[in-house]
Specification:
heterodimer, A: alpha/beta, globular, B: alpha+beta, Mth169, Chain: A, 2 helices, 32% strand
Amino acid sequence: MRFAVVQFGGSNCDRDVYHVLAEVCGVDTDLVWYKDGLARSYDAVVLPGGFSYGDYLRAGAIAARNPIMAEIVRHAKDGGLVLGICNGAQIGSEAGLVDGTFTLNAYPKFISRHVYLRVENTTSPFTALYREGEVIRVPIAHKEGRYVAPEDVIARLNCEGRVAFRFCDEHGNPTPESNPNGSTKNITGVLSEAGNVLAMMPHPERASEAVLGSVDGIKIFKSMMTYIEQHGHRQMTHQEFLQ
Amino acid sequence: MRYIVTITIALKEGMLNPEARVIRHALTNLGFPTEDLSTARLFRVTLDAADAAAAREEGARMCERLLANPVIHHYTIEVT
């Protein structure tokens, strides 16, 4: 089993994710510089948080058009897992890996604090280890994190169980007060149609060790590992990617 | 021929515009009451094209490929 953590110019959570994967979870993990492409086969690719390309134009917009993203889209189409966290979620939505987009917070300031999330889906490769309706505490740190999608898309996400997480209060109620950035229907974690891509604004890697005040986020990485174990490792090579 | 393609990208009708809300609030505080305020982004691109129609088409391709996000934006193009 092998994970890749992709580093763009301006990524700044790449080493945090690497640390959690390699040193806390004990998974074989490569830090992959975006210019190098996916030179080996990976079971999962993580797009970490940060400020790729200085958030110019729109957060994630420029990184999403980088050649490595075409490889990552291909990886996802072939069933590989992709987890986009914060700026990685913005990149993933800009690249069309999930529906909708993440844009300027309703109150347009940078918010950095712990929030409560309700786990809405417990069958995806990213959330299978959570209990249904479980309330977890994970930090957010963003200015462009308000999830927006047309009404019909929101209806489809709800109907197909593709909302992974919603902002909620500590009792699990997705109230307007518990929605820090004004996201549509409190949504802050979205799954792709096939369920193998998750784009989320909160930072599970910052809530994966007791010393950081919460271990609620680690189940995302462990769910991915369990899924890969159960579904077999991918053997695809770079050559196959190129074909 | 050398053309200047002016691309204006704005939020779709009905989209929340937090930036405009803050600016309008500040104008109100400065004694400028307003009924509405919206913002847009303008890109002025100088390029070489066979004719104005081709220049416009190139501008549209730039919007579709990078400059605009179809989920939240619409755009207008002017060629001079």
